[in-house]
Design a protein that fits this description.
single chain; about 280 residues; alpha+beta; Helix Hairpins; SH3 type barrels; Alpha-Beta Plaits; five-stranded antiparallel β-sheet; four-stranded antiparallel β-sheet; 8 helices; 9 strands; about 55% helix; about 20% strand; rod-shaped; disordered C terminus
Length: about 280
């Protein structure tokens, strides 16, 4: 019995220091992880708040990079604290990095694309842009993707590599946008009469202030082409970006009402051939 008790005591004498060391290392690791993740979250919040005052997209991107960087440092520090050699950690990370780079080369190219977008700054938050068939407002640039809010309420998420390599049209680069409306009328139409009607329509829109921020005096109104069966008229007006859609709608409605009153008809065949067009262009 005495021998059994001595064996138990010897066991505890041997294992207790080891358990104490392990417990202390685990406690340190837990504290390091807790503090590290807290600092990562705090750094992300503070960085975003500080930089977003000047540029929200840049603040969002840098805050994500800072957060991930702190998390990586925290994990390496934690592993080093529990006895894993730093050299081995770096070697392991290098090996994993190569494997990840080969397996996720598209994702890494998206990160590089995000950096390119941040450095070159082709747009900022809430800018309206066109990329291929997609047109909408910029919501955010993240590490891997760019988010664009579409006019119909949907959200387009594009890989940064695609955005960086695409032709980007920034519709918000200028505070004004040129509205161009093209329509056709018969050859026997009085050109001066049409021009006067359109000038009156623009002047009335300006006076009633249903649509603001444009100058009717600087509008272009004239014949832009002669088709085999009709005259092609063009109206070009510069207007504030935020008023462009409402202005075009008002212009078309009021012009149609004025033409009806003046008994100016748009040829039915031109409607069937889709030659009546309302085009919005940017310069």
């Amino acid at each position: 019995m005495a021998n059994f008790t001595d064996s138990i005591l010897d066991f505890f004498h041997i294992t207790l220091p080891f358990i104490q060391d392990i417990s202390l290392s685990l406690l340190k690791a837990i504290i390091i992880l807790f503090v590290g993740f807290y600092l990562a979250r705090l750094a992300r919040k503070k960085t975003h708040t500080l930089i977003a005052k000047k540029d929200e997209i840049l603040g969002n991107f840098i805050s994500q990079v800072a957060s991930i960087g702190i998390i990586i440092i925290t994990i390496v520090t934690m592993l080093s604290n529990i006895g894993v050699q730093t050299t081995s950690i770096l070697t392991l990370l290098g090996t994993i990095g190569v494997a990840i780079a080969l397996a996720l080369k598209d994702s890494l190219s998206s990160i590089a694309g995000g950096i390119i977008l941040i450095v070159l700054r082709p747009f900022k938050k809430n800018d309206t842009i066109e990329i291929g068939q997609i047109s909408g407002k910029i919501e955010a640039i993240n590490l891997f993707n760019t988010k664009i809010a579409l006019p119909d309420g949907k959200l387009a998420v594009l890989p940064n590599r695609n955005v960086a390599n695409a032709t980007i049209i920034n519709c918000s680069h200028s505070q004004k946008r040129r509205i161009e409306w093209i329509f056709q009328a018969p050859y026997n139409t009085d050109i001066q009469k049409v021009r006067e009607i359109l000038k009156n329509v623009l002047t009335n829109l300006e006076k009633t202030k249903k649509v603001q921020h444009f100058d009717s005096k600087n509008a272009f109104i004239g014949v832009s082409d002669l088709s085999p069966e009709s005259l092609t008229f063009t109206i070009r007006v510069w207007i504030k970006n935020q008023d462009s859609h409402s202005f075009k709608s008002e212009l078309i409605e009021k012009t149609k009402e004025a033409f009806d009153s003046a008994q100016i008809q748009i040829p039915p065949d031109s409607l069937e051939d889709d030659s009546l067009k309302a085009l919005e262009k940017n310069q």
